[in-house]
Design a protein that fits this description.
homodimer; about 200 residues; mainly alpha; 9 helices; elongated; disordered N terminus; DNA-binding
DNA sequence: CATAAGTGTCTAACTAGTAGACACCTTATA
DNA sequence: TATAAGGTGTCTACTAGTTAGACACTTATG
């Protein structure tokens, strides 16, 4: 039989993954500040000692959860852009759909934006990540030659997209992924710039 | 510090719980028959050996999942009725609401009824469990003195309730728990019998 | 103010999970 | 039809990950 080993680094992650999942549920249930380390390990059925072999404290766990999810969001779009590399031109819907489907797949996490006392840094980090993706992984081309400050333009469209996402999440994902992305595309068509995607498939 | 030991039996369950959860997801993804043991352990990040220390095969896991959830449903209503014990009379909504909230809490599992190639025994076992709850944990009293075959009456109302539940689940839990239970109560009011609840709080 | 509950750290012990190999069985496919 | 590829179930020896428990502190709550 073919080798069936799972990378050692990933093995170690199993427990961390469970602790993260427990944190998500408990934040929804009682708010971030009310969650204790004991709550977390009880929920996930681990010993308190185990928690401390993986994390320093609750905040480190929360931080790990936040960055891993936002990092995942970035990566979901495609390989991060490496300067001086081949540039792909793709249809608008492909990379954006990746964002949408990543959020939907991890809706359990992203629903945390519906809560007030939630993961520290989420309310700021989430839109910033969207912006970062726009900055690093998209380029825009003029259709006619109207000049625009590209930094501002990206910020403007990124936060616009974020607004749509937020509404989608808060509504409990009422629309299907397909319908949602379709509507988002419609709105981008109101711009004088067209989309391009940087990266490698 | 107070003793913080978790019952040893429960500790052992952690892994089993994760394997069950993996099975649920994979059944939704590819259908019960296509799911392999390897799929399960990969999804849950365990070694294949680990699976076999807990279960004989996929079917045993599926069986364990099924009975544990249906057992949980029964218990959620209250303590099972012990013959020759104190009989509680409760408002209709209390015990029924427990069923509803248990299903909602475990909607991830109960959504499996939406699938064709799903957990063996689920499509038959679920309604049977509802009936069992009606048989063992509810009694009905005549309002006027119209006589009715009580066995048939319970079967009739249990499957009626099951129909409502199924629709609620299939619709993706569109109505809130509160709204759903309210509507269910309205329908029971069309009966000439009134509800009672057997058991201990 | 006192009791209860949580925190963070450190041990020593152990068990649950791991890698790997085996024989066997079923499906594709070349 | 032969052969590779992928899945099954079982067993063994090893160790990494998890555990219980104790300790000294620091908040909360009635």
């Amino acid at each position: 039989m073919k080798s069936e080993q799972i990378p050692a680094s990933q093995r170690q992650n199993r427990t961390k993954e469970h602790l993260k999942q427990a944190l998500i549920e408990l934040v929804k249930e009682k708010g971030y500040h009310s969650v204790t380390v004991k709550n977390i390990v009880d929920y996930a059925s681990y010993n308190r000692s185990t928690f401390y072999t993986h994390y320093l404290d609750k905040n480190e766990l929360a931080g790990d959860l936040l960055v891993s999810m936002l990092r995942g969001l970035e990566v979901s779009v495609g390989r991060p852009y490496v300067p001086g590399h081949k540039v792909y031109t793709a249809k608008l819907d492909a990379p954006s759909f990746n964002i949408v489907s990543y959020i939907y797949k991890n809706r359990n996490f992203f629903e945390l934006i519906n809560y007030d006392d939630t993961l520290p840094g989420l309310h700021t980090g989430f839109p910033q990540t969207i912006l970062k993706i726009y900055e690093e992984q998209f380029i825009f081309e003029t259709i006619n030659n109207t000049p625009v400050n590209m930094d501002y333009f990206k910020r403007y469209t990124a936060y616009g997209f974020y607004g749509l996402l937020q509404n989608w999440i808060q509504s409990g994902f009422r629309e299907t992924q397909e319908k949602f992305i379709e509507e988002a595309i419609d709105l981008t068509k109101t711009h004088i710039y067209s989309f391009k995607y940087i990266g490698q498939n």
